[in-house]
Amino acid sequence: QVQLQESGGGMVQAGDSLRLSCTVSGRAVSAATVAWFRQAPGKERESVAVIRRYGGGAYYADSVKGRFTISRDNAKNTVSLQMNSLKPEDTAVYYCAAGMGVILSTIWNVAAYEYWGQGTQVTVSS
Question: 65: Cβ–Cβ under 8 A, 6 or more apart, which residues?
Answer without folding.
Answer: none
